[in-house]
Amino acid sequence: MIDIISIIIGLLMIVFALLAIESKKLLNSVIFLSITSLLSVVEFVIMKAPDVAITQAVIGSGLMTSLFLFTLMSLQKRGEGE
Amino acid sequence: MKKFISAFLTLVIAFFVFSLLYDSQSMFPKYGEKDLSKIVSQRYIEKNVDEERPYPETGSANIVTSIVVNYRSFDTLGELTVLFISALGVSLLLNVGGERIKFRIKPNFILKAGVRIITGIILIVGVYIFVHGHLTPGGGFPGGAMIASSILLMYLSDDNFKEKMNAFNVLEGTSGILIIVLGLIGLFAFNSFLYNFLPSGNIGELFSAGLTPILYVLIGLKVGSELSNIVGNFLFEGGEA
Known about the structure:
The structure holds 2 protein chains of 2 kinds.
Chain A lengths: L1 H21 L3 H21 L3 H32 L1
Chain B lengths: L1 H20 L14 H4 L2 H5 L16 H9 L1 H22 L14 H23 L8 H18 L7 H26 L21 H23 L7
Helix pairs in contact in B: 4-5, 5-9, 6-7, 7-9, 8-9
């Protein structure tokens, strides 16, 4: 049972990573990358590594996404000024 | 054509990796079938590396913590140095005066009232995680990141919020200096850097494991202040400097 769940999560991670590469808008790409990090958290918990799971959940899905979004906002501001 | 070549290369690499992993005579066994006591040194698991100590070496219930902060604490000091250098680079490049970035959509009443409730809870969870680092999973780095995310929420809910930068800088500097001072005390009095010289009590209590909880609290405060400074520097526009 747990093997089937982990295989499904792995296939979903591959699909979301391809969507993050191929999407036209940069904002959608950042969101798909965050979803990939969240799915990897579930995979770490299945492999019995809670330390790595906590760190990935806080840094990979929270702080990195927000820093990417702030960088995108400042890029849009520079583009409108010119 | 470019996509076809990249897909072909990916398939070749995937075939190579899977044939290496699932061969019958490969060096990688299947997940869960490896005997850990033959790879990891058994003396680290049983905590009897130094046989001439009057009391047990480390009393932490979490074996990851006992290796990261006790046996390999010099590597953890190196990780803290890498994070400090990256925070220094961000503040040198982005902090050239200027004003706060104003969001296009003003923060409304619901966001302000919700953040007032949630910020305190996130701060308490972060502090709990790095105080109990030697008993439960977690530790200094995730706790510091949780503190930084609560500061980020306060930035998002208020357009005029400016953190007290001096307080965070003083906190970061004092915690870094205290880690080095504890290491030097171990070096000069017990001839090894960051030696665990406090007695380890009963396993499972809060005040146990000697020097490990003190080091984890200092690491958590340092990481939290550095990441909060990085988030704050991203939200200031650069003026014409």
